[in-house]
Amino acid sequence: MTRPSAYHQRVAEEKRALIVRAATELFLESGYDRASLARVAERAGVSKATLFKQFPTKAALFDAIVITSWAETGVADMPPAGDLAAGLTVLGRRYATLVTQPEMTDLFRIVIAELPRFPELAKAHFSQGKLPYFESVRSYLVTERDAGTAAIADPELAATQFLGMISNYLLWPALVLPGWTVTPARTTAVVDEAVRTMVARYGA
């Protein structure tokens, strides 16, 4: 079978991005239930055949929104163990960038709005988005504990505490307070304080 050329791959990726963005907008405007795949195709400027080829169901399309929103995290690039403050700073800044992107705010709004009628959306968001990222932070804390540079009895709780300190300032207010903005300097300060707190509590 002939593999698609680089050009055709790029075009397919561009169309996929248009579809995901259009779906996100329609889910926010009309609700997940009322936003049909046909309307998504029209908003994205692609044919229904093109959309159905990539996303045969609305659930598959929502999964793509989740994966796209969480994709820019660089989870595979785990900081090396040996310096708890340095490693947490890398992870914290990465997480801050992630939760402050508009796509992430939109995703949370869709999940919250549709939770009563479509709890499977929240499950998809958790299992395909948040959980893998959370697991990467938990695994990093385990490596620091095993290296003797952190005294952490419950890495799962510690990871929750660390990410919570960041998202509680950068993400959650943006969901409920119109016009909530955080300057880059403030974002850096939020991450740095979270790191200091973790090192003070768990540094060996």
TrEMBL record:
Alphabetical UniProt keywords: DNA-binding, Transcription, Transcription regulation
DNA-binding region of this protein: 36-55
Signal peptide: none
SUPFAM superfamilies listed in its UniProt record: Homeodomain-like, Tetracyclin repressor-like, C-terminal domain
Domain HTH tetR-type per the UniProt entry, residue ranges: 13-73
GO biological process: negative regulation of DNA-templated transcription
Keyword match DNA-binding: yes
Top-level division of the source organism's lineage: Bacteria
InterPro entries in the record: Homeodomain-like_sf (IPR009057), HTH-type_TetR-like_transc_reg (IPR050109), HTH_TetR (IPR001647), Tet_transcr_reg_TetR-rel_C_sf (IPR036271), TetR_C_Proteobacteria (IPR039536)
Pfam families found in the cross-reference section: TetR_C_7 (PF14246), TetR_N (PF00440)
GO molecular function: DNA-binding transcription factor activity; transcription cis-regulatory region binding
PANTHER family for the chain: HTH-TYPE TRANSCRIPTIONAL DUAL REGULATOR CECR (PTHR30055:SF146), HTH-TYPE TRANSCRIPTIONAL REGULATOR RUTR (PTHR30055)
Protein name (Swiss-Prot/TrEMBL): Regulatory protein TetR
Taxonomic source organism: Actinoplanes friuliensis DSM 7358
